[in-house]
Amino acid sequence: MARQSTEKPKRSLFRRINEWLHLWLGLASGIVVFVVCLSACFWVFRYEVWYFTETYQRVEPQNRPFLAPSLLLKKAQTFAQKAEGKSVTLMGITYGGPNKSAFASYKPAEGKFYSIFLNPYTGEIIHHKKGPSKAEAFFIFARSGHRFFFLPPKIGSPIVGSACIIFVILMITGLIWWYPKKWTKSTREKSFTINWKANWKRVNLDLHNVLGFYALLVCLALTISGIVYSFSWFDNGYYWLLTGKTQTGHHGLSDEHPFSDTTITTRTYSQPEDILWQLIRREHPGNFGRLSLSFPEEAKDPFEVTINPEDGTIYKTFTRFFDQKTLKELPSDESRRYEELSAGEKLYRMNFDIHVGQIWGLPTRILAFFVSLIGASLPVTGFIIWWFRGKKSKKTPKSSGKEANVYLRQ
Questions:
Q1: TM segments (predicted)?
Q2: 384: Cβ contacts below 8 Å, ≥ 6 apart
Q3: What's the pLDDT at 199?
Q4: Beta strand pairing status for 249-250 and 90-95?
Q5: What is the pLDDT of residue 119?
Q6: pLDDT value at position 395?
Q7: pLDDT given for residue 231 in this prediction
């Protein structure tokens, strides 16, 4: 009777290369991926934190229209000049939804940016904001880790972008490594469930493999949409892939803003903010997420009116430009509304909302939180697998280490 061979089947060259890439690329990028994913967990809930901690941004809704911009600006101007003890030029005014306060902004000095929050129904001064709140400061810190690994942007951005590209490769090689050679009842259980009754090494292995599998598609979407902000070549290629067009500017928009006609030196109207406000409210009736009027700073600058129809997302935001002297509307690529875009352009416009998980509100932010948390756990559980590879626990049977090693290679 022939003796049965006990030698382990050799892995293919493709499998060996795949596992080598997954191991060493994971070790090389692990710390950056951990920081980027963990900081993303905090960032997704910034709106909720701001809502509860910055009470000056909220007002009691009233059954009457907002005050015209000129009235709010007059109250803000008087308050700012008294607070600063000198003449102040307001940069613009922003309205929110029915339960949000309005605010006017100004620069008291170079490098400083203050805001005056007002009740849009009464004009009452609610808050004089002279810098980031504690909640904002925390999220600025979290964003610095997420975008730049706490380094200067020119250094940190390519590091984060490169780590994210490696992370995409790791997810693909991890899926190949995870995929069983044969689908049996045993391999299905190991591939889709966590054996909480096993020893801690096996549980750690399951956390890495199983959670990584379930988070894969969403994690890929979050990661790929984020690489856009690190590399212009990736941004341009991504835009071309979705739209079939070549970008003429940054993030699908022209870098050239329209300019006011500087040959016209006289203005034939007063209170342009009220004229624009009435125009916008007439053409865009109903509630909106945010509406901002920005005033010209130089002779060539136009008035800018940025409209966000929805609160909590930005992909439907568009900006309209008006000549400084005539208030004639100036054409711009930024004025195109979401509904006017092609399917690829719409998807590209959604990129930021997809990346931060706010595309469909709170449910997708919760999903992004858990997927980011799993993403942060993968370098940790992966490192533990590598560090304890081949090491047997004194409290576990000899067969346990073999089982984990066999499972790791499936």
A1: 21-45, 159-179, 211-234, 366-388
A2: 204
A3: 94
A4: unpaired
A5: 98
A6: 53
A7: 97
What one-character-per-residue DSSP string does 171-218 give? Answer: HHHHHHHHS-SS--HHHHHHHH---TTS-HHHHHHHHHHHHHHHHHHH
pLDDT, residue 110, reads: 86
- What's the pTM value of the predicted model, to 2 decimals? 0.89
pLDDT at 406: 38
Residues 6+ apart with CB under 8 A from 229: 147, 157, 161, 235, 355
pLDDT of 248 reads 75
Question: For residue 371, how many C-alpha atoms fall within 13 Å in the half-sphere facing its CB?
Answer: 23
Please give the structure tokens belonging to residue 119: 């009740």
Radius of gyration of the chain (CA): 28
Cα–Cα distance measured from residue 78 to residue 95, given in angstroms and rounded to the nearest whole number: 19
3 state SS of 378:
helix
The tokens of 299 are what? 């002779």
At 401 the pLDDT is 45
Beta strand 102-106 pairing with 329-330: unpaired
DSSP 152: -
Residue partners of 351: CB distance under 8 A and separation at least 6:
225, 228, 238, 251
Q: How many residues does the chain have?
A: 410
Tell me the HSE value of 315 on the side-chain side, using a 13 A CA sphere. Answer: 21
pLDDT of residue 389: 84
Using CA atoms, how far residue 130 sits from 55, 133, 146, in Å, is 16, 9, 25
Residue 119 backbone class (left: φ over 0; alpha: ψ -120 to 50; beta: rest): beta
Cα 233 to chain centroid distance, Å, stands at 19
Domain boundaries in the chain?
A: 13-47+137-241+360-409, 55-132
Mean pLDDT per 10-residue section of the chain, whose length is 410 residues = 53 92 97 98 94 94 96 97 95 96 94 95 97 95 97 98 98 96 91 95 96 98 97 96 85 70 87 96 92 95 96 95 95 94 96 96 96 98 92 52 41
Cβ burial 211-232 (10 Å sphere, 16+ → b, else e): bbbebbebbbbbbbbbbbbbbe
Hey, is 320 helix, strand or coil?
A: strand
Which of 124, 125, 298 shows the shortest CA–CA distance to 115? 125
Cα–Cα dist 112/132, whole Å: 11
The rounded distance, in Å, linking the Cα atoms of 18 and 11 is: 11
